[in-house]
Write a structure and sequence with these properties.
This protein has 812 residues and is of the alpha+beta class. The chain contains 28 helices and 35 strands. Strands 11, 12, 13, 14, 15, 16 and 19 form a seven-stranded mixed beta sheet that branches. The longest helix is centred in the C-terminal third of the chain and has 21 residues. The protein binds one RNA strand of 86 nucleotides through helix 7, strand 12, strand 16, helix 11 and helix 21.
RNA sequence: GCCCAGAUGGCGGAACGGUAUACGCGCAACACUUAAAAUGUUGUGACCCAACGGUCUUGUGGGUUCGAAUCCCACUCUGGGCACCA
């Protein structure tokens, strides 16, 4: 009997597959109607660490199994691979190991691709892409310009998140709990001029489409929360003895009669506008300065509210015409709504805290009839209007409409989502392809009225190459290292011919990955970002698998970019991923695998010891794919035994070549279960079904045809071993392009079943009886059982519940 | 604080409202072996019993039902997301 030499077998088939190109789809030819295209995508990795750990492998293998299943299901499957190697994470890694990112990227590339090949995935290697390849980022820059041309990219001075350790600006989405998502340093606020994308313009659509796309529910919920839509009203409050008004946004206009003071954000323009009327201006100024310097974390951490009254000015409550004080306080955010609120302490927790501290009046205007004054906490529930003049007795809903119209307010919608800040003051990213000419700016020339002096690089001049800079480390001067490379930033103005300056900031890594799925099928196309014909055939992506940690970053940005291109008429779909599933996280001893924790499991050792097929199958057998779980090697021997047993059975089948079917029921049952389970990504139960099947067929002289079907079912999990046996059985074409078996329902039906006899819902006996037995016959057989007879013993049977082909329950 | 997911043997985990604990690990006994490993066979939720058999058991407490791990209500714990968003 031939020994199972997995390392030889695996290496041989990996080479053979590459040679025969069975994983290369026909990307171009539109007339190959025979096999329908299926774009099976897995989030590409960023090669920041020493290599892929077993957690990464878990995700890749899970995606590959689905792709292989679809390929055998008759689809022309496109499963590309690449590296998200541009960006801060790769740059930081290069700094850590003391080399240049350009050099490091070549090393990482080799290592990653080798590892990805060893695991045996069916990648279309011809279409690989790397985000740091000028042939790729040339089009990333083109995407930036496309945004600019449509008025969706703008540069503005604003308060931004700054990571003092990474020495760069971060997008809102990259700040986690007031800290940098990358290095966990506390993020501070800085006033800087930055490029942003107007993602807020698409907020409504990004939200609405979530209702009809087939995505993991938890990711949709995360996006909904992030976009954060609230419906409310904008209401103007007049400032007494002044022409000025203070506009607020509120979701509770019904509580207007309870608004006993107002609060503006420290950054609010009213403070400087009414400077001369504010009697304590110097104190106010001090407070504003302090709160601006506070980090996001400090503002939040300090639950104790701070603030200062703007003395000398008062606002008029438009509902009851009473004069109320105005405060500046940093619990009101400048970036949300109008940056000013009407404070209703009786019905808002934050206003309540503030009112208590500053001894401000609390007027209850909503009551559920049980209200006891004075309140000990804000009442935010539903009820009936009181103390509200003409609104008294109305419901909250009715009052909202009535009062808003009465005071001349407008109903509006607010989103939590902010624009996406894309400038980064780092090195290892695509330069932003823009130029600025001061002379043009002075006379108001430029490509866009709002931003005189700015020009985009001409398309034919792309890419704007990232120059080789030895001192690439961030200097922390609010600018990229490119700002000290004169040969890079000194350019001629494309319009007046004078001296212009190139933008020296680079773009966010998430821009690289926001459109890569469009590039993959068109990688060979050097003339455009994507080829229309190919894109029409292959996109949108049919199945996308990746980590849930990208819910509000990559996945939201990709949807945004896709919508923009749809509106520009450049593509004909507006959602990039038809189906998205988040894989679970593979953890180690309860903690996420990470280099810093030192709990990373290297897959290479396991491949060496057990082979890729065993590792793949073990990873998928551990836990449900969408749930993830704890990686232990305790169970891997069980899977290794299983694979070995299949191999040995295979040798016997090859020897005997039995033709007579002996295991039809077991095989067809397995076909049904495995097919259904793979389709719903329940790989663990699919494998268990294969184990059950093997237990049954192992000692039954299974026929060649039956065993081949078994191999096909196992092929997505253990592609090398099954291929070896497949050819051993005399097949001439790869098992991976063979046709997935179909089960015959007639062959699954059993003649008998085990009838469960219950008394009062408790199992008292089990009897094997023929399928389709009638209620009456079942009753007779049940009653004839000794144990049952004894228990009934003359007691009246009140009711009989009979579930055909399952059970009979006697109620006494 | 709000939203989401989850809690099942010694462990990872299975179970359209219908035999809870499939499959695998581990453990035990046996076979093979001079011996061990490997492999194979059998057993393996807890408690009571000499045995036949019985009782209990899916985080906790209630409810609906002939019947609940599964549906409903309340609570505890764990993981994840959001968080001064008016």
């Amino acid at each position: 009997m031939k020994k199972y030499e997995f390392s030889k077998i695996e290496k041989r088939w990996q080479t053979e597959w590459k040679k025969t190109g069975i994983y290369e789809p026909s990307l171009k030819s539109t007339k190959t109607a025979k096999r329908k295209p299926f774009y099976n995508l897995m989030m590409f990795p960023y090669p920041s660490a020493e290599g892929l750990h077993v957690g990464n492998m878990y995700a890749f293998v899970g995606s590959d199994i689905y792709g292989r299943f679809k390929r055998m299901g008759g689809y022309d499957v496109f499963e590309p691979i690449g590296l998200d190697g541009f960006g801060i994470h790769s740059e930081n890694y290069a700094i850590k190991v003391g080399t240049h990112p350009l050099k490091q990227s070549k090393v990482s590339e080799k290592r990653f691709y080798k590892q990805l090949e060893m695991i045996g995935n069916g990648f279309a290697w011809n279409e690989h892409l790397e985000t740091y390849d000028p042939e790729y980022y040339r089009w990333t820059q083109w995407v930036f310009i496309a945004m600019w041309k449509r008025g969706l990219a703008y540069r503005k001075k604003q308060a931004v998140n700054w990571c003092p350790s990474c020495k760069t600006v971060l997008a809102d989405e990259q700040v986690v709990g007031g800290a940098c998502e990358r290095c966990s340093s506390v993020v501070i606020k800085k006033e800087l001029e930055q490029w942003s994308f107007r993602i807020t313009r698409y907020a409504d659509r990004l939200l609405k489409n979530l209702d009809h796309i087939d995505w993991s529910e938890r990711v949709k919920i995360a996006q909904r929360n992030w976009i954060g839509k609230s419906e409310g009203a904008e209401i103007n409050f007049k400032i007494a003895n002044s022409e000025h008004v203070l506009k607020v946004f509120t979701t509770r206009p019904d509580t207007l009669f309870g608004a006993t003071y107002m609060v503006v954000a420290p950054e609010h323009e009213i403070i400087s506008k009414l400077k001369s009327q504010i009697s304590n201006y110097s104190e106010v100024e001090k407070y504003v300065k302090i709160s601006k310097e506070k980090s996001e974390e400090e503002r939040v951490e300090n639950k104790e509210k701070t603030g200062i009254e703007l003395k000398g000015i008062k606002a008029i409550n438009p509902a009851n015409k009473k004069e109320i004080p105005i405060f500046a306080a940093d619990y009101v955010l400048s970036g949300y709504g109008t940056g000013a609120i009407m404070a209703v302490p009786a019905h808002d927790e934050r206003d309540f805290d503030f009112a208590k501290k500053f001894k401000l009046p609390i007027v209850v205007v909503i009551s559920d009839g049980k209200t006891v004054e004075p309140l000990t906490e804000a009442y935010i529930g539903d009820g009936e209007l009181i103390n509200s003049g003409p609104l008294n007795g109305l419901s909250v809903e009715d009052a909202k409409k009535k009062i808003t119209n009465y005071v001349g307010g407008t109903f509006t919608t607010q989103f939590r989502l902010r624009d996406w800040i894309v400038s980064r003051q780092r090195y290892w990213s695509p330069p932003i392809p823009m130029m600025y000419c001061e002379a043009c700016a002075r006379v108001g020339k430029g490509e866009q009225k709002e931003m005189p002096g700015w020009y985009a690089e001409k398309e034919k001049n792309l890419p704007v190459l990232l120059p080789m800079v030895k001192e690439f480390r961030p200097k922390g001067k609010d600018e990229s290292p490119l700002a000290s490379v004169k040969s890079f930033y000194k350019v001629g103005c494309p319009v007046c011919g004078g001296g212009a300056r190139r933008e020296t900031d680079v773009s966010d890594t998430f821009l690289d990955s926001a459109w890569y799925f469009l590039r993959y099928p068109s990688v060979q196309d050097r003339k455009s970002a994507w080829n229309n014909e190919i894109t029409k055939k292959w996109l949108p992506v049919h199945m996308y698998i990746g980590g849930a940690e990208h819910s509000v970053l990559h996945l939201l940005y990709s949807r945004f970019i896709t919508m923009v291109f749809k509106d520009a008429g450049l593509i004909d779909f507006e959602e990039p991923f038809t189906r998205f599933r988040a894989h679970g996280l593979l953890i180690k001893e309860g903690a996420k695998m990470s280099k810093s924790k030192g709990n990373v499991v290297n897959p290479d050792e396991y491949i060496k010891r057990f082979g890729a097929d065993t590792l793949r199958t073990n990873l998928m057998f551990l836990a449900p794919f969408e749930q993830g779980g704890d990686f232990r090697d305790a169970g891997i021997v069980g899977v290794a035994r299983f694979i070995e047993r299949v191999w040995r059975l295979g040798q016997t089948v090859i020897e005997h070549k039995n033709k007579k079917p002996t295991c039809e029921r077991a095989i067809h049952k397995a076909i049904k279960k495995v097919t259904e389970d793979i389709e719903s990504l329940q790989y663990n139960t699919a494998i268990s079904a294969l184990m059950i099947c093997l237990n049954e067929i192992e000692n039954k002289e299974v026929s060649v045809a039956e065993f081949q079907m078994f191999l096909q079912l196992l092929a997505p999990f253990a592609p090398h071993m099954t291929e070896e046996l497949w050819f051993g059985l005399g097949n001439k074409k790869s098992i991976h392009i063979s046709e997935w078996p179909v089960y015959d329902p007639k062959k699954i039906v059993e003649e008998n079943f085990v009838l469960v006899v219950q008394i009062n819902g408790k199992v008292r006996a089990t009897i094997e009886v023929p399928r389709g037995i009638s209620e009456n016959d079942a009753k007779k057989i049940a009653m004839s059982q000794d144990g049952i007879k004894k228990m009934i013993n003359g007691i009246e049977i009140k009711k009989i519940i009979f579930v055909p082909n399952r059970l009979i329950n006697l109620v006494i």
